[in-house]
Write a structure and sequence with these properties.
Blueprint: E1 8-14, E2 23-29, E3 36-45, H1 48-54, E4 65-66, E5 71-78, E6 90-93, E7 130-132, E8 135-139, E9 149-153, E10 157-160, H2 166-169, H3 175-187, E11 194-198, H4 202-213, E12 218-222, H5 229-235, E13 239-241, H6 250-257, E14 264-267, H7 272-281, E15 288-291, H8 306-309, E16 313-316, H9 324-336, E17 346-351, H10 355-363, E18 369-373
Parallel strand pairs: 4-8, 11-12, 11-14, 12-13, 14-15, 15-16, 17-18
Antiparallel strand pairs: 1-2, 3-5, 3-9, 3-18, 5-6, 6-10, 7-8
Helix pairs in contact: 3-4, 6-7
Bound molecules: dephospho coenzyme A and zinc ion (ZN) (2 copies).
Length: 374
């Protein structure tokens, strides 16, 4: 049936309020306006940030909402004035868009875009696209991939290789790129260096992959769930530590193992205490700590400023420092050329109807990435 120009009724997982399970609903998705495209989502991963929103831990989120920000799909129709993409093309939605015009987009050192919801949360309100049972449903980061069809602004997608397997490269839309890019772009891990990775979910394991590709000689993986260690080793970790196995703080253990601290440490848990532990684990004089996790918005970080005065660098990384429009297609080509591992992150695949089961697997620490399919 020809759908161009018509409202599409399709399946989506709606979160009516924080703390409740998702409901599979029929939602209405309007045709794309000028500068927008409508995309059929084929596959989407479950990321811990979605779970943070389920529990109301991120600020400025409005409910009801359709979550999902790690998807891949096929263009169904294209609004006026959109160039460079046509129905049938494969795309990855960008939760961090790239307008190409703002002061951050024009700065080669930055991957932030002032049109993103993280910079301009009020922009989201003007762009509500879904309705369900007569109610407007909010979007997550302007992309909402837990819907069979979604509307994307022209600045919020990357066109990718026609042959890319969407149920794998969807991870390039968030978790893989966030972790891998933090090691390769943000920290710029050097060959022969030592690294410590706190938290071995999809993001932390992608940091491990990035450190390995960058040629680190020692990659120390830290997690309180030891069932994560086998996969961490498979992906390149040289040592795995459970802080609960030691009667001294984990940063002391790391310093003792590495002659005073690591070159690079990465926080991929989202706890303010672990952020300070990661900073303290980096070597004075030259160590760099990269914060990747987002903590509950009520939490604040506190540490001795001498840690910085003595020559450590503290950095943050959002979407691995990648400018999505340019870097995501390249990441997909690199995946197709087998330049890095990624398939190993997928532990479960479920139909969208079983989304609540997928979130239970994450909560139980049993999954790395669950891929939901429509
Ligand atoms: N010490 C060590 N490990 C711990 C601890 C602890 N105290 N607590 C939990 N962990 C481990 C868990 O066992 C788990 O293995 C891991 O930490 C966390 O993994 P996941 O699978 O729950 O989460 P990820 O990898 O999907 O995401 C982690 C983030 C920290 C990136 C995420 O929570 C987050 O904060 N995202 C927002 C940051 C961001 O840039 N987002 C972009 C869009 S997501
Ligand atoms: Zn994510
Ligand atoms: Zn911009």
């Amino acid at each position: 049936m020809e759908t161009t120009g018509k409202v599409i009724k399709c399946k989506a997982a709606v979160l009516w309020e924080a703390g409740k399970p998702f409901s599979i609903e029929e939602v209405e998705v309007p045709p794309p306006r000028a500068h927008e495209i409508r995309v059929k989502i084929v596959a989407t991963g479950i990321c811990r940030s979605d779970e943070h929103i389920v529990h109301g831990l991120l600020s400025r989120i409005k409910y009801p909402i359709i979550l999902g920000h790690e998807g891949a799909g096929i263009v169904e129709s294209v609004g006026e004035e959109v160039t460079g993409v046509k129905p049938g093309d494969k795309v990855i939605p960008l939760f961090l868009p790239q307008c190409g015009k703002c002061v951050c987009c024009r700065n080669p050192e930055s991957n932030l875009c002032l049109k993103s919801t993280i910079s301009a949360p009020q922009a989201e309100d003007e762009k509500i696209k879904f309705t369900c049972k007569g109610k407007l449903i909010n979007r997550m980061a302007q992309i909402s991939t837990f819907s069979e069809y979604t509307i994307l602004d022209e600045i919020a997608f990357a066109k990718i290789d026609d042959n890319a397997p969407l149920d794998r490269v969807c991870l390039i839309g968030c978790g893989f790129s966030t972790g891998y890019g933090s090691a390769v772009n943000t920290a710029k891990v050097q060959p022969g260096s030592t690294c410590a990775v706190f938290g071995l979910g999809g993001v932390g394991l992608s940091v491990v992959i990035g450190c390995k590709v960058a040629g680190a000689s020692r990659i120390i993986a830290v997690d309180i769930n030891k069932t994560k260690f086998a996969k961490a080793k498979e992906l390149g970790a040289t040592d795995c530590l459970n802080p609960q196995d030691y009667d001294k703080p984990i940063q002391k253990v790391l310093k003792d193992m590495t002659n005073g601290g690591v070159h690079y440490s990465f926080e991929c848990i989202g706890h303010v205490d672990s952020m300070v532990d990661a900073l303290e684990s980096s070597h004075p004089g030259f160590g760099t700590c990269v914060i990747i996790g987002v903590a509950p918005y009520t939490d604040k970080i506190s540490f001795d400023p001498m840690l910085l005065l003595t020559g450590r660098t503290l950095k943050g990384s959002h979407f691995g420092g990648l400018k999505g429009k340019i870097s995501v297609p390249k990441m997909v080509s690199d995946y197709m050329a087998k330049k890095f591992k990624l398939d190993e992150l997928v532990t479960h695949t479920l139909p969208i109807n079983k989304i609540n089961e997928g979130f239970e697997l994450l909560r139980a620490g049993e999954s790395i990435r669950t891929i939901l399919k429509f």
